[in-house]
């Protein structure tokens, strides 16, 4: 089992995912050039955003790209 500690919240993540399982901070360069569209209002947001900048709908990386 490989543990990777999040640089933002410090919690251990057992999977080798692109983002933290707890705070959704991305671990690597993936996502810097990806736009995350809000499922509610379709506003384009930064990939690392946790909520839409316009309607504040919760976002998760990879839900709508």
Please state the structural category: mainly beta
Helix content: under 10%
Oligomerization state: single chain
- In round numbers, the mean pLDDT is 79
| Total number of beta strands | 4
Q: What general form does the structure show?
A: elongated
| Unreliable parts | none
H/E series: EEEE
Number of domains: 2
In DSSP terms (H or I, runs of 4 or more residues), the helix count works out at 0
Task: Assess the beta-strand content as a share of residues.
Answer: 15-25%
Strand order of the largest sheet: 1-2
Distance between the termini: 30 Å
Main sheet attributes: strand count, strand direction, barrel closure: 2 strands, antiparallel
What integer value in Å does the Rg equal? 12 Å
Report on this model:
With 65 residues, the protein is mostly beta strands. The protein folds into two domains: 1-30, no CATH class; 32-65, no CATH class. Helix content is 0%, strand content 15%. It is built from no helices and four strands. The protein has strands at 4-5, 12-13, 35-37, 44-46. The strands form two sheets. The protein has a two-stranded antiparallel sheet. The chain has a two-stranded antiparallel sheet with strand order 3-4. The chain is elongated, with a radius of gyration of 12 Å. The N and C termini lie far apart (30 Å).
Notable traits:
4 strands; elongated; 15% strand; two-stranded antiparallel ribbon; 65 residues; mainly beta; 2 domains
Short description:
This protein has 65 residues and is mostly beta strands.
Topology of helices and strands:
Layout: E1 4-5, E2 12-13, E3 35-37, E4 44-46
Antiparallel strand pairs: 1-2, 3-4
């Amino acid at each position: 089992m490989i543990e990777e500690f999040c640089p933002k919240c410090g919690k251990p993540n057992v999977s080798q995912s692109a983002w933290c399982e707890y705070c959704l901070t991305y671990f690597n360069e993936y996502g810097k050039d990806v736009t995350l569209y809000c499922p509610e209002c379709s506003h384009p947001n930064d990939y690392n955003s946790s909520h839409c900048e316009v309607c504040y709908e919760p976002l998760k990386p990879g839900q709508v790209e």
